[in-house]
Write a structure and sequence with these properties.
By secondary structure, the protein is an alpha/beta fold. The protein has eight helices and 13 strands. A five-stranded mixed beta sheet has the order 1-7-6-4-5, sandwiched between helices. A four-stranded mixed beta sheet has the order 8-13-12-11, sandwiched between helices. Helix 2 packs across helix 3 and helix 5 packs parallel to helix 6. The longest helix has 23 residues.
Length: about 350
């Protein structure tokens, strides 16, 4: 028995927000003082560092559970399974459903429950729950789905990663330019086919790192102090990721028994292009090698950082020929790797 992704689907929001749309924002330092540089300089430096030119936001009528349902329906259709045969629905997100114009999260009932309701699944033995694990949530959901299947507790699982970060960003924080919305979903099944999940690795660092990402007040000191937004210590996260992610990837690859030369693609969490490039460089340096050209497909330039949705939407887009000069073939060895709030790190070695 092997455990594979047998279907995938995604939802890419329709609202395109370019870097120029931020030129009229009033960006402030965390103490409320204005930046000395004009916004066009801020936007240009932002693009050079992150690689982001534009990002996608959901329309006002959609919430996280809505776009997750769309992606889930596509994954179910792609896998050709009966949704009534699903044993688990694992929904990775971080902020719940947030209505446009509000900052209050709605988690009752859980978003996984809402998706099961939207899919009209009657089977009560289909267990639905949410996972709060930062940006690595979808990868961790796949790892948990594998564990259920290996333990004989499940045969088919739906794992979703969806987020609407545009609803929880401080417009006065230049880091708000990073974030975006999106949803990706996959069906994980036991199968007699070769390949599937070959190894995985997960770690949580909290001793010094727990609050590198957190909810905090607006940088505009006149705003309501009871309303909070996603905040991050970008420098600390960058240093942490470069130090720890390559080592986690190495541990995962080594436990799989696969040689690094066999890895065709690395699908890494899309938060910052320069950071991702540095992680890949350091990972290959651990094996005294240099990364092959095209090893790291990127979607961040047009989609931004959609947190838990970045890897499943990237995977789905490559399979469907939507990423230029990138493709996957049956039998290819790939890696999934992510880092995010917690601070959490995980990786999977997977054979398509």
């Amino acid at each position: 028995m092997n455990i594979k992704i047998t279907g995938s689907g995604s939802y890419i929001p329709t609202e395109i927000v370019s870097n120029t749309d931020f030129l009229k924002h009033v960006f402030l330092n965390d103490d409320g003082t204005p930046f000395p540089q004009p916004n066009d300089i801020i936007a240009e430096k932002f693009k050079d560092i992150t690689g982001i030119v534009e990002r996608r936001y959901v329309t006002d009528d959609l919430k996280t559970s809505d776009i997750a349902t769309i992606a889930a329906k596509k994954a179910i259709e792609n896998s050709k399974i009966d949704p009534e045969t699903l044993d688990y629905i694992i929904f990775a997100h971080n902020f719940g459903d947030v209505n446009k114009g509000t900052i209050q999260t709605d988690l009752l009932p859980s978003l996984a429950t809402r998706v099961k309701f939207n899919l009209r699944i009657k089977n009560p033995k289909c267990v639905a729950y949410d996972m709060l694990f930062g940006c690595p949530g979808w990868v961790e959901g796949v790892i948990q789905a594998q564990a259920y299947i290996k333990a004989g507790m499940a045969k088919k699982c739906l794992v979703i990663g969806a987020e609407t970060l545009s609803r929880v960003v401080d417009p006065h924080d230049r880091d708000s330019m990073i974030y975006s919305d999106g949803a990706g979903a996959t069906i994980i099944e036991a199968t007699s086919e070769e390949g599937g999940i070959l190894a995985h690795e997960t770690a949580t660092y909290t001793y010094d790192e727990a609050y590198y990402l957190f909810f905090g007040n607006s940088f505009n000191k006149t705003h309501d102090p009871d309303i909070r937004y996603i905040k991050m210590n970008g420098r600390k996260i960058y240093e942490f990721a470069l130090s720890q992610v390559p080592k986690a990837m190495q541990a995962c690859l080594d436990s799989s028994g696969i040689e690094i030369s066999q890895v065709k693609k690395i699908l890494i969490h899309q938060a910052n292009e320069k950071m991702d490039e540095a992680i890949i460089q350091r990972f290959y340096r651990l094996y005294k090698q240099t990364p092959p050209e095209g090893i790291m497909p990127m979607s961040i330039h047009k989609l931004g950082n959609s947190s838990v949705a970045t890897i499943p939407t990237l995977y789905d887009s490559i399979l469907k020929g939507e990423i230029e000069n990138q493709e996957l073939h049956k039998g290819d060895i790939i890696m999934f790797a992510s880092v995010g709030a917690g601070m959490n790190i995980n990786a999977i070695v997977y054979q398509v």
